[in-house]
Amino acid sequence: MLFNSLHFLIFFPFIVLIYFTIPHKYRWILLLIGSYYFYMSWKAEYAILIMIATLASYFFALQIDKTESILKKRLFLALSLSICLGILFFFKYFNFVSESVREFLNLFSVQFNSPILGVLLPVGISFYTFQIVGYTLDVYYKRIKPERHLGIFAVFVSFFPQLVAGPIERASSLIPQFFEKHHFDYKRVTDGIKLMMWGFFLKVVIADRLAILTNQVFNNVYNYTGLPLIIASYFFGYQVYCDFAGYSFIAIGAAQVMGYKLTENFKRPFFSKSFSEVWRRWHISLMNWFRNYIFFPLAFKKGANKFRLYYATVIVFFVSGLWHGAGWNFILWGLLCAFYIVISRLTSNLRGKITNMIGLSKYPTAHNFLKILITFHLWIIAAIVFRINSLQDGVYVFTHLFKNLTFMIKGLPLGLDSIGLIIAVVFIGLTEVIQLIQEKRPIRSYLSTKPTYIRWILSLGLFFSILLFGVFEGTQFVYFQF
Amino acid sequence: MDGRKEIIGIIKELKNVSEIDESIDLIESGFLDSFDIINLISKIEERFKIKIMGEDIIPENLNSIDSIVNLINKTKI
Fold it and tell me: I need a surface site. Which of A11, A46, A131, A377 has the fewest CB within 10 A?
């Protein structure tokens, strides 16, 4: 079920209504049934994968906790991770590895018909798998006790607001919330609905509108040179943000309506002054996961030194690239992000000296603006790598971005007419202004100082913008494929 | 000087700041990045004459002044 579907607009109020009507002790049952229905309305048989992963991680976490033997703990951990990551590998990476092996052998004129599976990628598999793996590792490292209530644990794995595209939650943060009794709180509920509306706005008004142009251009790159490629690149950078941040806001808002607090997943990443900062503002729950379970163990477990930090950075972003998709462009994208961070760190002192030498450090506002601008453009370059359909397409895009560059676009279909383009640009500008206010102070506290009628006008404006300017064609969220 | 004050002093020196907002999560907020952590650990080891094990260098042990104090006390035992 998509958030931006009529199905969800009926499903969600229905669940909320029952949730606040029934006693607390039965709510986990409602959430479990609702979450599985939410998932199964997409492809019912794939719910079995969630069930297997849930049962395996539940059972082995209990065994890890129970045994005193280090060897047995490791064995149970290995079994749990093998099952969960094995399912992920089989459905997400098998074909990619198989094709890569075939292509590699073909380079040496070895004919090898490697098997290709005719399976559909289960929606959200990377998200719930990572959540489960995090839980199992936390139990293994004795950071938490295993959850003994199978029903609550199953809700933790399948909680519908964040099941298919996060935020990826830690067990220590989410599981206790299922034991808390949540009352209907008018302010919390309306705040949650407003957050959902903001998410819908980002998704259907901006992301889906930009997607029309970016899909047209990136799926037919050889028809374009110069300005259309540049516009599509900027638009895609913004589309992927509005698409995924939009999803996260809807998820966080939906959970908030029912009384649950999910991790903030995006903090205005385009205001970042360095690429490291981007990753503290973009897909925060995934980066926290990488930090806790890959970066820290790799960087510090055998003692801390700078070389290990660089090594851990490269590994984390390599895995991050693979996590995003089974394709060489995603791996390249991950390595490019690692390259940015490593180079940024290595040149930090030199850049500081240059900034002092040319006197830029005397003008902090201009200096910060320049840093934001450079970081944003590095992000756009990475976004191109992320979006391309093949490495050949990528080579073409980068070698034709500035070719035949004119400021007129004639005779080429871009998918959007001039009105559509203007609407897209105006709403991007509007979103940036709102985010600029948010950067200075929380928008809710800012609006709370305004008269009630202004808050109503803004809420209704948001609502009618979604109705009037939204693109309603049931388009999937970009991050669903991960 | 107690351990808490000493740690605040080390972090101020490390980050070249006059004050530390103790309400923020030092790791999650990005106030301490991975390179700061290396320097922090090495200064703590030097000043407190202890050896912090790699497996103890996890975000939970470094996210506040109190958790760093706990880590040092645990390591001393």
Answer: A377
User: What's residue A411's pLDDT?
Assistant: 60
Residue-wise pLDDT tens digits, A401-410: 888 777 666 6
Tell me the domain boundaries of chain A: 6-181, 188-481
DSSP-assigned states of every residue in A127-160? HHHHHHHHHHHHHHTTSSPPP--HHHHHHHHH-G
Q: How far is CA A408 from CA A41, A416, A426, B61, in A?
A: 46, 15, 20, 57
Mutate to test the interface with B, among A141, A291, A296 (most CBs of B within 10 A): A296
Interval A222-247: pLDDT, tens:
988 888 899 999 999 999 999 999 99
Three-class DSSP category at B49: coil
pLDDT band at A2 (very low <50, low <70, confident <90, very high): confident
Gap from A384 CA to chain B (nearest CA, Å)? 27
Contact A301 B57 (CB under 8 A): yes
CB contact under 8 A, B57 and A291: no
For chain B, list the domains and their CATH numbers: 3-76 (1.10.1200.10)
Q: What is the ipTM of this complex?
A: 0.76
pLDDT of residue A304: 67
Residue A56: pLDDT over 60: yes
Number of CB pairs, chain A paired with chain B, less than 8 A apart: 41
Q: Residue A294's closest chain B neighbor by CA?
A: B58
Whole-angstrom Cα distance, residue A210 to residue A425?
9
**Rounded CA gap, A49 and A95, in Å?**
18
Look at residue A173 in the predicted model and tell me its pLDDT.
92
C-alpha torsion sign, points A23, A25, A30, A35: positive
